[in-house]
Specification:
This protein has 195 residues and is mainly alpha-helical. The protein has helices at 4-7, 24-46, 51-73, 79-100, 115-126, 140-165; strands at residues 17-20, 77-78, 104-105, 133-134, 176-177.
């Protein structure tokens, strides 16, 4: 008796899994994750003097590059992994927004020209609370990175939306997502293997 997962239709996946067909959405998810990961690697290099920031950027870059590899090379991706990856990217965007607006406590002093004034103002306003707040300025690379992360989140939300729109029972399962004009991988044979 053959393994049921290998003998089945290449278009089918369990309800807990997603098959993203080759096409625009799959390529967009991979490109967004690779781009954000590459920018975070650059940010890690730029913050090599600060261990906490270096570790944060390396971990985020590793996660994003790993997600890109999973989307690119894994046929059936668990929905929990896609949703978790989207949540992690959304969390990084929230951290980015905080570092540009209210600032995060305990961050090192930046070398930007206007940071001395910002640090002095923050020291006065936060002195009673006992910590300093460091606020970064908006830059091209960090803004691009956040837009790529938002793009990944939107892509996963599109996959979920298409999953919900698909009628239950169509093609035997409601978790397969066909996007773009790509063909399913591994659909070379026409017959099913004998049991």
């Amino acid at each position: 008796m053959g393994a049921p997962e290998e003998a089945g239709d290449p278009e089918e996946a369990s309800p807990e899994e997603c098959i993203i067909q080759n096409g625009l959405l799959k390529n967009g998810l991979v490109a967004a994750s690779v781009g954000a990961g590459a920018i975070h690697l650059w940010a890690a290099w730029a913050h090599y003097d600060y261990t906490r920031e270096l570790v944060f950027f390396v971990m985020v870059a590793a996660l994003q590059l790993w997600l890109a590899a999973v989307v690119l090379w894994i046929r059936s991706i668990p929905w929990s992994l896609l949703i978790g990856g989207a949540a992690a990217n959304a969390g990084v965007v929230v951290v980015w927004v905080l570092t540009r607006t209210t600032g995060l406590p305990g961050m090192p002093k930046a070398t930007h020209m206007d940071m001395d004034q910002i640090m002095e103002r923050a020291a006065r306003s936060q002195h009673a609370k006992g910590f300093m707040v460091h606020k970064e300025t908006f830059g091209l690379l960090d803004t691009t990175c956040s837009l790529l992360e938002i793009g990944f989140v939107v892509g996963v939300l599109m996959l979920l939306w298409m999953r919900r729109r698909r009628p239950h029972g169509e093609s035997g399962n409601d978790a397969t997502v066909a996007v773009g004009t790509g063909v399913a991988e591994g659909s070379g044979g026409t017959g099913s293997p004998s049991a």
